[in-house]
Amino acid sequence: MAHTSMIQTSIKVPFAYSIHFTRDVFSPENPTLHDILVDGEEDQRHRFLVFVDAGVAEAHPHIVDGIVRYAQDFPSELELAESPLVVPGGEAAKNSFETPLRVIRLARQAHLCRHSHIVAVGGGAMIDAVGFAASMIHRGVRVVRVPTTVLAQNDSGVGVKNSVNLRGVKNFLGTFAPPAAVVNDSSFLRTLSTRDWIAGIAEAYKVGSIKDREFLDWLDTMAIRLRNRELEPMTELIHRCAHLHVQHIATSGDPFEFGSARPLDFGHWAAHKLESLTLNELRHGEAVAVGMALDLLYAAKRGFIDCNEAYHTIRSMARVGLPVWHETLDMRDAAGRLLVLNGIEEFREHLGGKLHVTLPCPLGSKREVQTLNEQDLTECVKELREWAAVSNQHAN
Predict the structure, then answer these.
(1) Which is nearest to 89 in space by CA: 113, 123, 116?
(2) Rg value, the chain, Cα
(3) Which of 22, 61, 113, 182 is least enclosed, having the fewest CB within 10 Å?
């Protein structure tokens, strides 16, 4: 008779990180970054590298010099190991290994140790790529994220995930590695394009739709002010959205998503496919808005929410300037099947083989479903196309 033995163990590793809301983070009068890097250990020099999104460097032409001066203002405590490196921003940062490899090479050149820091200044995609590289250097170098877009400040930049895309598959390679800290600097928001300003609002509608009805109603009342680029409501939006996001991470019981459910991914099964089908012509936030509009109608068809509430939320997103329809939704294969429906199977694979799709039920709360009816979704695409056509006629 064969005899077997087993040793079973359980490991719990606590993670803690802070999210700071400030202005002009690289001003010598602002101690936020200094305090994060030093972390109370003032009797030594703390080494760090900085990577800057090319779009941020273009909008803020003096940022690299400002970072160098910031380190020089604390010569006994901070050491900038190499000059700040400007790397591509946008989804291009994640579509190849170029950015992660540049991070790895510079870290090796600078002889960075595990207790050094890497500071990533940029949009969510660039932060994803830099964080992915940092999580592999010495099995994890501390990262300070300085997200510069609405979408990164209220969602991706405050979470625990890092990733790159592979051959058109969104986030195919990635790691779970919480940052050492996040610094949300509102001064970066003023130089955003209107398109990027608005695109980031999609994630606020997402968490409002499935977690906080009061927040969703607030978004509706603030829609025009947000569209008009008023900073005060935007900073409140970012703070409330970031709070809901990290609250979920801390209390869900599955921060590293070992299970199949992705409760914060409302609208994302279609969004990821739309990004791929449009070759990233659609921003992530824009694709999420279109995906949410589709899923709102699907939730109404399933009786999870009232149909009037679904259309009210879609109208609210449109009023803030978010797209709620894109012609790519209507693209079909040779058999006449909607190409976006391929996103269901890709999402299932991404989740680990079992489909879990989050839908509002009712608005402000959520329900997980394990199947999606393709015929109903096809009808929802038709309804959304017709609604968008009528809305455009009225707008003109």
Answers:
(1) 123
(2) 22
(3) 61
Q: How confident is the model at residue 69 (pLDDT cuts 50, 70, 90)?
A: very high
Q: What angle do CA 239, 245, 249 make, to 5 degrees?
A: 140
Q: Considering only CA atoms, which of 57, 126, 49, 46 is closest in space to residue 94?
A: 126
β-bridge pairing 357-360 and 366-369: antiparallel
Q: What is the pLDDT of residue 242?
A: 94
350-360 mean pLDDT: 86
Contact 321, 354 (CB under 8 A): no
CB atoms within 10 A of CB 331: 13
Residue in the structure block whose two tokens are 């990233």: 280
pLDDT at position 349 is: 83
What is the rounded average pLDDT of the residues 40-46? 81
Q: Is the dihedral of CA 236, 237, 238, 242 positive or negative?
A: positive
Asked if residue 189 lies in contact with residue 232, where contact means CB atoms within 8 angstroms, the answer is no
Structure tokens at 106: 């510079």
Q: What percent of the chain has pLDDT over 70?
A: 96
| Number of other residues whose CB lies within 10 A of the CB of residue 351 | 18
Q: For residue 111, give both structure tokens.
A: 């002889």
Structure tokens at 81: 């190991």
Preceding amide of 255 cis, omega within 30: no
Mean pLDDT of 294-299: 98
Q: Which two tokens stand for residue 48?
A: 């760090």
pLDDT band at 168 (very low <50, low <70, confident <90, very high): confident
Output the six-digit token pair for 63.
């940022």
Query: How many Cβ atoms sit within 10 Å of the Cβ of residue 4?
Result: 4
Burial label, 114 (beta-carbon count in 10 A; 0-12, 13-18, 19+): exposed
pTM of the entire predicted model: 0.89
